[in-house]
Design goal:
single chain; alpha+beta; Jelly Rolls; 5-stranded antiparallel β-sheet; 4-stranded antiparallel β-sheet; globular
């Protein structure tokens, strides 16, 4: 984990575009996930389902969570705020990232028109970048529990995010983790 943190810090300090920063973070997370002991030494309860913040960077403010997801776990459709990004990695099990494209311009309060994109199936060792402003809903549909490692640009409790009801074409803006 320490080598991954050092790689992300280096990417944020030396790369000059967000795409290059995220590409290095993505590659670093996949390298971390390939290590069978990547969760060793972390203060997490391996017998419970939940999410544990394992690191917050004091300079760059990114945070890393390890999560143990129940079988058939589903997160609602959300984003990480206007400046937020994330890289989702699967350590064990399988997670589907359902990505969305926003079709409207956000001009009508509380309304949002989204179109589902092709889902991304992530298996152990895979990482997926959720870009700045990216809308997504991760879910575990294969009937087995899953372990994930997620790095986000900021602690979710410190940012305003959007939560979407795709069927009703609604969006609610709030400051909430929902992790």
């Amino acid at each position: 984990m320490n080598a991954f943190i050092a790689e992300v810090r280096s990417a944020l300090e030396t790369e000059t575009t967000i795409n290059r920063m995220l590409a290095r973070t993505h590659a670093g997370l996949e390298h971390l996930l390939a290590d069978a002991g990547c969760l060793e030494g972390l203060t997490i309860d391996r017998t419970e389902f939940g999410s544990w913040k394992v690191y917050t960077d004091p300079d760059h403010l990114f945070c890393i969570h390890a999560s143990h997801q129940k079988p058939n776990y589903r997160r609602g459709v959300h984003d990480h705020g206007e400046l937020g990004w994330a890289v989702y990695g699967v350590f064990r099990g399988e997670v589907v990232q359902q990505l969305y494209e926003r079709l409207d311009d956000g001009g009508e309060p509380e309304k949002a028109e989204l179109r589902a994109l092709e889902p991304i199936v992530q298996r152990a060792g895979d990482a997926t970048v959720i870009p700045v402003g990216g809308i997504h809903a991760p879910h575990n549909e294969d009937g087995r529990d899953a372990w994930t490692v997620v790095i986000r640009s900021r602690d979710l409790t410190s940012i305003w995010r959007n939560f979407y009801d795709v069927g009703k074409g609604r969006v609610v803006r709030k400051r909430s983790s929902g992790d």
